[in-house]
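Quick log. Single chain, no ligands specified.
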Amino acid sequence: MAEWRVEAAFTIAGYSAQPGPLWLAVSVCDHDGQPINLQFPAPADPNPQWPLVATVMLSQVGGGAYADTKVVGASMTKLGFYLFDIVNQDEELASLADLRPLVIAVEVQVGADRGQTLAYAAQAMLPWPFPRP
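-> predicted structure:
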């Protein structure tokens, strides 16, 4: 089993009054710093198996509870760097943005090789020109 180095951060896109999707940026490399090439499931796969599991740890809204997530989209920005669009696994609950995540527990695993980290919120820049208050 190889132990990977994983780093991550998340942001909630907000281009209007409503919060947008939650984006999870993840970096994965081996112990020597070589990037890991993650394979994504085919878009038509009815039961996609993603190499990433993300669990949202809730703050004041959930009182220390957690919410399981599912990946609905992903892209590789550069070898070893990935961007995941994640949503609440229980579609009847509020969106992840409305749940106000405190931190996201991230596990990346392919076969026996794995790594994990905690993703903290990152500030996203507003689109230009952005509305003034």
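The helical segments are 96-99.
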